[in-house]
Design a protein that fits this description.
This protein has about 240 residues and is of the alpha/beta class. The protein contains eight helices and seven strands, in the order βαβαβαβαβααβααβ.
């Protein structure tokens, strides 16, 4: 199993939820991490938690939906790292039925969940091919398969991300870069409509995942031997409705 000691990891949406859990687990395994999110308080809190565990970490406030912010993130990460080994392409927000959202709202969801993710994957591939390859892990959603009602904007973004990841994998492997798409089922986070108390009960019952469960999956994927490509993974709650 390849070591993560000293490896350089960039986590989009790394201040909360799955991104934060992944950053902490990979850092615990010896990686140096760079994170970003939209809000300063969450960034400070996430960096403090990483510092408490003795991690080498940095980060900035940035919005993945903004082209200039993505460019700034990669400039800052290059200053911090020099090389990039792993991207956890995770940043995302909730979306509702398209008829229930204002025009600028649903467009912003797509810019975040699809365009922003593609932009970070593109920049990472360009950076990684300068060195000895790398690994891009894209966090999608089971919504791309279920296509539930009242979430058509979210479904559109995550369905597009699934198609992108499948094709991007074929492009990136020519450059020595692995691509993995992980699609979690319902996972406890601030994106959920339910309260933290309700989420804890659903997790206890096995009908909701924890962010740490997805972090473990990310860790598994990025520590496989070079000969192994984990291209697609779905993680479902043990108890779920169909």
């Amino acid at each position: 199993m390849p070591s993560l000691q000293g490896r350089h990891v960039l986590v989009t949406g790394g201040t909360t939820g799955i991104g934060r859990a992944a950053a902490r687990l990979l850092a615990a395994a010896g990686a140096e991490v760079f994170i970003f999110g939209r809000h300063e308080p969450e960034l400070r809190d996430a960096l403090a938690a990483l510092a408490e565990q003795g991690a080498k970490a940095g980060g900035v406030v940035a919005d993945v939906a903004e082209k200039k912010d993505v460019q700034r993130v990669f400039r800052e990460a290059r200053k911090a790292f020099g090389t990039l080994d792993i991207l956890v392409d995770n940043a995302g927000i909730a979306g509702e039925a398209v008829a229930d959202m204002a025009d600028d709202e649903w467009r912003y969801v797509i810019e975040t969940n699809l365009v922003g993710a593609m932009s970070c994957a593109r920049e990472s591939l360009r950076w990684m091919r300068e060195g000895e390859g790398g690994h891009i892990v894209i966090i999608g959603s089971m919504s791309a398969e279920r296509k539930g009602a009242d979430s058509s904007v979210y479904v559109a973004g995550k369905s597009g991300l699934r198609g992108f990841a499948e094709s991007f994998h074929k492009e990136a492997r020519k450059e020595g870069v692995k691509v993995t798409l992980i699609e979690p089922g319902q996972t406890g986070s601030d994106m959920q409509d339910s309260s933290p108390t309700e989420q804890r009960e659903e997790i206890r019952e096995g009908s909701m995942l924890r962010a740490e469960d997805i972090a473990v999956a990310v860790h598994y994927c990025v520590t496989q031997p070079h000969r192994c490509d984990v291209t697609f993974m779905q993680i479902r709650p043990h108890v779920e409705s169909h």
